[in-house]
Amino acid sequence: MELLALNDIARLTSIPAPTARRYASLFKEFLPGRRLGRAMRYDNAAIAVFERVAELYGQGRITSEIEEILRREFPRTIEVGPASEPIALPAVAQDLAPHLGEALTAALTDALSTALAESIGHFTEALDKIAEQKTSLDSHQNDIGKLKNGFVLLARNLKRVAQRDQSEVRALMGTVDDRVRKSESKVALMEEITLTLSSDVSDLKARVAAQDVEIRRLRDDRDRLENVLKRYAD
Question: Which domains does the chain have, with CATH numbers?
Answer without folding.
Answer: 1-89 (1.10.1660.10), 97-234 (1.10.287)
